[in-house]
Amino acid sequence: MVLKTDVLTTEEADLYLTEVLGIQNAKFGMENEDLAFLNHLIQCYGQATPFNNIASLSIDPTKRALPTFEEVKKAMFTGIGGRCYTLCTFMYLLLKALGYKVHLYLSSIMGLLPNHPVIGVMINLKEYLVDVGTGYPFWEAIPLDFDMESQVYAKSCIQFKYKKQNGHILRINIKGNLQENFYDFETKQVSLDEVNHHLAKVYQYDPDAIYSPFHTGIQIMGWYDGKAVGMKNNILMLEDDGKMKATVLETKQDVKHTIKNYFDKFSDDMLDKAIENKAIKWSF
């Protein structure tokens, strides 16, 4: 059974906040409208939990499926994290447990199938966007009351903005003079069941599919000592002076050692199975 609504209790939420994120004395209650706490939570959440596909890669391709609630909860309580479904839906349920008014949207990354959930939060009659499922530093709730384009946000090594167009909201990455549409979503709220339906297709292995690279290579994005750290197969990317600098690792053992160095919550067994995945195309 995949995630259903209202399954994260206030006791579980408080335990997660205190034991995993180190947040004490969080406010619980109906109609929570504390924007400052929300932004603090988003930052702690992003820094503590990496975006990654290690768990997916460690599973036999024919058995891959949308995570169950117990799998999502285990991944988050152990600090392993996961892909967008795990990160976004857990945050959605966490915010509900805290008393925030929340809803879901389904976005399409790079113009492909609906494949990425994002969260809308209402605070003092104003809507904010919360996206914790990409590994990028969205460390604050984005107000959606801009006219046509939002301000430009500069976080760590990236710049981005949002744009309204034909009933959709577009997320645009900015690299120098280049602007790239990263994802867009229709401003139509969806249920968690609808998210489950669409994301199930992304988690199931299809050797002919083009919409998910997460079955064929290691993808990790997280934070170490306040700086961005990424892994793509055997290429390590570290933030340095506002840019990502790449280092090519020479062996699978180097890959495992490097992942463990920056992301120490993965078990040896899970890492070994993921690294031995025959679909990975190494550059050594």
Task: Briefly summarize what is shown.
By secondary structure, the protein is α+β, with helices and mostly antiparallel strands. The protein contains eight helices and 13 strands.
The number of strands is 13
| Number of helices, where a helix is a run of at least 4 consecutive DSSP H or I residues | 8
| SSE pattern, N- to C-terminal | HHEHHHEEEEEEEEHEEEEHH
Helix content: 25-40%
What ranges have pLDDT less than 50 throughout 5 or more consecutive residues? none
| Mean pLDDT across residues | 92
Major β-sheet annotation = 8 strands, antiparallel
Characterization of this structure:
- By secondary structure, the protein is α+β, with helices and mostly antiparallel strands.
- Helix content is 29%, strand content 27%.
- The strands form 2 sheets. Strands 5-4-3-2-9-8-7-6 form an 8-stranded antiparallel β-sheet.
- Strand 12 and strand 13 (243-248) form a beta hairpin.
- The longest helix is centred in the first third of the chain and has 15 residues, at 84-98.
- The protein is globular, with a radius of gyration of 18 Å.
- The model has no long low-confidence stretch (mean pLDDT 92).
Q: What keywords describe this structure?
A:
284 residues; alpha+beta; 8-stranded antiparallel sheet; 27% strand
How are the SSEs placed, and which strands pair?
Layout: H1 10-19, H2 35-48, E1 51-52, H3 54-57, H4 69-77, H5 84-98, E2 101-109, E3 116-123, E4 126-130, E5 142-143, E6 153-155, E7 158-165, E8 168-175, E9 178-186, H6 192-203, E10 219-224, E11 227-232, E12 235-240, E13 243-248, H7 252-262, H8 268-275
Antiparallel strand pairs: 1-10, 2-3, 2-9, 3-4, 4-5, 6-7, 7-8, 8-9, 10-11, 11-12, 12-13
